[in-house]
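Quick question, first post here. What does this chain look like in 3D?
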Amino acid sequence: MRSVALSPANRQAALDAMAAQPLDVLVVGAGVVGGGAALDAATRGLSVGLVDARDFASGTSSRSSKLVHGGLRYLEMLDFRLVAEALGERSLLLDKLAPHLVHPVPFLYPLTRRIWERAYAGSGVLLYDSMALLSGRSRGVPHHRHLTRRGALRMMPGLKKEALIGALHYYDAQVDDARHTMFLSRTAAAYGAHIASRTRVIGLLREGDRVTGAKVKDLESGKEFDILAKQVVNATGVWTDETQSFAGERGQFHVRASKGIHIVVPRDRIRGDSGLILRTDKSVLFVIPWGRLWIIGTTDTDWELSKDHPAASRSDIDYLLKHVNKVLVSSLTHEDIVGVYAGLRPLLAGEDEATSKLSREHAVGTSVKGLVVIAGGKYTTYRIMAKDAIDAAVHGMASHLDRMTPPCITEDVPLLGADGFEAVWNQRQMLAASSGLGIGRIEHLLHRYGSLITELLDLIAEKPDLGKPLTGADDYLRAEIVYAASHEGARHLDDAIARRTRISIETFDRGTEVADEVADLMSGVLGWTKAQRDNEVDHYLKRVEAELQSQTMPDDETADAARMGAGDVVPISTTRAKAAG
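> Answer (accepted):
Ran it through. Tokens below.
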């Protein structure tokens, strides 16, 4: 498979192609499900377009717990099918689809009750491990084991002795969700899909009772045009109801938004080598290793305010600190927090008022001819959701095609960077020697780019200055910012600092210190004028200021009002920017 760059020129070519020729399938929403649907359709031989009003993964798909897991707690709900399905997908991602992006991560489950809890929880984890095998695929992670209190504290000395009498040690998997989602869209482009971010659907086209495409607006240029398609797939997550309303009819189901927030703290604030899963009065709490940091989350509360920029309040943060501090020797404080992020889960609305009990399963609706709606689900099962959506689209256009459409094959389609990953990993010493970078740096890059690392190293070979770390965010190289803009579809400062890298949640300054340097590097690729470059920096600084203010507010309403003080960046279109590529 050839590598395709999501460059400015590629984006313009995609827009031109979608305006010029009718598509088989137009997917709206470039989150993990939308990207997966575009890849699924493209690999069946269909002509495909994918558009999103913002950046790839800019909504829920960049704000998850960064886990690929079966959902251990769903066993208690007796949702065995969902768990088995998710564990099968976990194995696929680890072993075949994205081994460069997904890797095993250990967890401790502290036990607090003698005898019965070890038997009860132990049987659950045993079932969890067994279901991974029963899915017909390898487990992909090591088997669980039982630990005494001494064994658990040896692994996690940061835990209070009185917080446990023993523990279970098991494995799940971890992913950089934003990068994985971007790779889905980029892989779809490699198979011929037309991909364009910052392209908003402003209406659906109709012929009688059938949807025949969408009217869209290129937010970078302001131009509006029509995209004709035999089927439109609405994969807009928490925006499902709004997008569905363009059809002028009531949908078969509705999506309810549940807010989940996470805090990020330095690794040295919790002594230990394993993640934690803790029970709370409402749900479970994860403490997840993330490089030199820990991610702690999540909450699960109803959210009816702005879906564009969900805000974390001080009460949200206090909730996480309160529960995690119950088990830690050294309590965490607000001053320890490096980053905070809030996301919205798209849950299928039901009668239960508690969002933590609404369905994590997905549904596909086709109440309007020509329009497929996919909603609900969880990150790990995105591929199955995408398959079901495209199956429905294929069924809906069967009479409009002059050929048979093959079934889904995405379980055998590795993402870009996965092909040859193990071979390139084995060559990491040679790559370090030839590039002049340290072995640790090469390993870090391999887990971000896989076998595409050679494209990044070629940039550095051509311009050695790009091999230097970013000032104030030295986990990342200057070349990664240039590559984000030239190959990974980053159009704005937010895209690079918050999603192509995770600087916005990994540094105490939230990326403000590196904003000028990143803007200068992106300007060279995107052809920004000085005015646009300055506007990008100003917008990013205001965004961080608004987020920090929202996190001091006592509740959702005041936090939302503070966060809305900084809106989306207003694109400035120039002839040079449109022609750059």
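The mean pLDDT is 92.
The longest strand covers residues 255-266.
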